[in-house]
Amino acid sequence: MKKVEIGELFKSLERLGFDQNEIFSTQTIKIIQRDWKEIVGDFFGDQSYPAELKENRLIVMCKHSLISQEMEFQKMAILQKLTDKKLPTNISKIVLKTGIVPNSKRTSS
């Protein structure tokens, strides 16, 4: 198998219509979703879900407004844990919203 430099790979993907930032954002949100309970703990992991990443802002859906309020106090600690993970995309802000949280039967594999 031919060895490909990362720059060549991204140039090829761009020619196919893929955007490097979009690829990094997609991978970042998948990693965060996979590791969410490790990042916020079991209780908040069951009550919230990292829904999307937009312009370096992590949008987190919370089952109830009380959960949003409690997590508001933990934003800085969560941001630090995300920074420590050395994700493909830097996250500068967490936005908490109340809404539908998918079933929490996610694994951390």
UniProtKB/TrEMBL annotation:
InterPro entries: DciA-like. It comes from the Bacteria. This is DUF721 domain-containing protein. The lineage of its organism: Bacteria, Pseudomonadati, Spirochaetota, Spirochaetia, Leptospirales.
